[in-house]
């Protein structure tokens, strides 16, 4: 079902592209046809039926205006509707050819152009219908048409207007097909590229959702053994004399157990806020300070240097819980890179304007880490890493309407830029 829906959606997009292309072609056709009728009737003085030809040109102009109005409406262009636009063009062209020589008119080959345009955008059954309609019109124009007067210009020697018309027709056909079909094909390629990116994003989000579901279940299961560990640690601390080495180790373990309990509680709070759909509204400095405190508890061996631009002090952010996790993941990755290179400091710079905020995370490593956009979603170069932090940060940035980029610095280290809107993602268009 999803694949068939995507196919129908693609055909609807192609139908709209074809209708838009035909609308612009009609404007070109109206101007060209009006100029041709005026030149042949006034300059060359040929006795052609100007009234019915003018009626056909005016009809095409009115339909062109209607097509532009239709394209501005919100409802989608259906495949039968796109076929109807092609049929109208073929019908008007057949009318004009009937009063100007029929199949002997050098511009009769323009009946092929609707077939080529339809073949680039419509399903096979509609292309076959367009081809049959154009062929039927061509065959009808052979016996039934108003003949053209003798094609001769006095005073310039023998000059066959039919040959000149064939040359003009070839030039017009080649130019129109080259420009408009290339334009239509480019639009279709861009649409297919967008669909491919959305498919890849959906697959990545599906994998992340599966991991999140598993994490939620694991957090629920961990609550019971963690409570047991905290109880036993409390009893062991009471049995040890104050100031002993074992008491210090037990105090450290107790602190880590408390941290694990806070993490589990935060997971529950995150899920509750996401179900309600109300992001936490915080002053940007408070949000950064909260992330700094959490990172300090997780990585006390690394010094984090925070710099807030003056414009960031007065900003308020509707903080999605995932944004905090994404930023801490980037800081943790930077800490690993710096420690691997023998450094113990990382830097966090924060800049903001009225619309968005940018977090700049810099490490002092070798700059050889995996950056976003490489297509390696869950791989990591760290021996003990799971490879999820960067993927989750990248997915969070995209979901919030921002971006995550990485840049290797000439002086060493990697600079990662996480840019997201200040408004919550739930308040933005999906």
Descriptive tags:
430 residues; alpha+beta; 5-stranded mixed β-sheet; two-stranded antiparallel ribbon; 10 helices; 7 strands; 62% helix; 10% strand; elongated; disordered C terminus
Radius of gyration, taken over Cα atoms and rounded to an integer in Å: 35 Å
Largest sheet: 5 strands, mixed
Helical stretch tally: 10
Widest β-sheet, arrangement of strands: 2-4-5-7-6
Q: How far from one another are the termini?
A: 22 Å
Rounded mean pLDDT score? 76
Percent strand equals: 5-15%
Helix and strand pattern: HHHHHHHEHEEHEEHEE
- Tally of extended strands? 7
> Which secondary-structure class do the elements indicate?
alpha+beta
* Global geometry: elongated
Overall helicity:
55-70%
Which spans have pLDDT < 50 for at least 5 consecutive residues? 1-9, 152-159, 369-387, 424-430
What do you see in this structure?
This protein is of the alpha+beta class and about 425 residues long. It contains 10 helices and 7 strands. It has helices spanning about 1-45, 50-70, 80-100, 110-120, 125-140, 160-240, 245-275, 285-300, 320-340, 390-400; strands at about 280-285, 305-310, 315-320, 345-350, 355-360, 405-410, 415-420. A 5-stranded mixed β-sheet has the order 2-4-5-7-6. It has a two-stranded antiparallel ribbon with strand order 1-3. Strand 4 (about 345-350) and strand 5 (about 355-360) form a beta hairpin. Helix 1 (about 1-45) runs antiparallel to helix 2 (about 50-70) and helix 2 (about 50-70) packs antiparallel against helix 3. The longest helix has about 80 residues, at about 160-240. The chain is elongated, with a radius of gyration of 35 Å.
């Amino acid at each position: 079902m999803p694949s068939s829906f995507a196919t129908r959606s693609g055909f609807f997009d192609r139908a709209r592209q074809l209708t838009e292309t035909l609308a612009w072609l009609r404007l070109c056709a109206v101007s060209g046809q009006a100029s041709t009728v005026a030149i042949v009737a006034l300059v060359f003085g040929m006795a052609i039926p100007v009234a019915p030809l003018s009626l056909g040109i005016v009809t095409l102009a009115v339909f062109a205006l209607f097509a532009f109005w239709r394209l501005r409406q919100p409802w989608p262009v259906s495949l039968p509707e796109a076929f109807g636009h092609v049929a109208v063009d073929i019908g008007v062209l057949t009318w004009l050819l009937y009063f100007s020589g029929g199949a002997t008119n050098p511009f009769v080959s323009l009946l092929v152009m609707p077939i080529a345009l339809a073949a680039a955008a419509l399903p096979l059954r509609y292309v076959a219908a367009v081809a049959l309609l154009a062929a039927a019109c061509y065959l009808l124009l052979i016996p039934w048409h108003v003949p053209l007067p003798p094609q001769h210009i006095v005073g310039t020697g023998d000059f066959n207007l039919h040959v000149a018309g064939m040359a003009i027709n070839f030039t017009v056909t080649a130019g129109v097909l080259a420009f408009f079909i290339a334009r239509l094909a480019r639009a279709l390629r861009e649409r297919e590229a967008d669909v491919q990116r959305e498919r890849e994003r959906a697959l990545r989000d599906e994998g992340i959702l599966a991991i999140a579901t598993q994490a939620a279940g694991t957090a629920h299961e961990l609550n019971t053994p963690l409570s047991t560990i905290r109880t036993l640690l409390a009893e062991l601390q009471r049995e040890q004399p104050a100031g002993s080495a074992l008491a210090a180790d037990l105090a450290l373990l107790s602190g880590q157990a408390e941290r694990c309990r806070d993490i589990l509680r935060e997971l529950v709070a995150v899920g509750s806020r996401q179900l309600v759909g109300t992001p936490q509204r915080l002053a940007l400095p408070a949000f950064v300070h909260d992330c700094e405190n959490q990172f300090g508890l997780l990585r006390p061996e690394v010094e984090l240097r925070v710099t807030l631009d003056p414009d960031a002090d007065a900003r308020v952010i509707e903080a999605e819980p995932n944004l905090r996790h994404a930023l801490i993941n980037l800081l943790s990755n930077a800490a690993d890179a710096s420690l691997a290179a023998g450094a113990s400091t990382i830097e966090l710079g924060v800049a903001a304007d009225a619309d968005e905020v940018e977090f700049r995370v810099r490490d002092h490593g070798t700059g050889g880490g995996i950056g976003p956009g490489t297509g390696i979603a869950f791989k990591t170069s760290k021996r003990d890493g799971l490879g999820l932090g960067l993927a989750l940060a990248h997915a969070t940035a995209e979901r919030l309407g921002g971006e995550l980029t990485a840049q290797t610095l000439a002086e060493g280290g990697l600079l990662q830029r996480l840019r997201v809107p200040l408004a919550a993602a739930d308040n933005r268009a999906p």
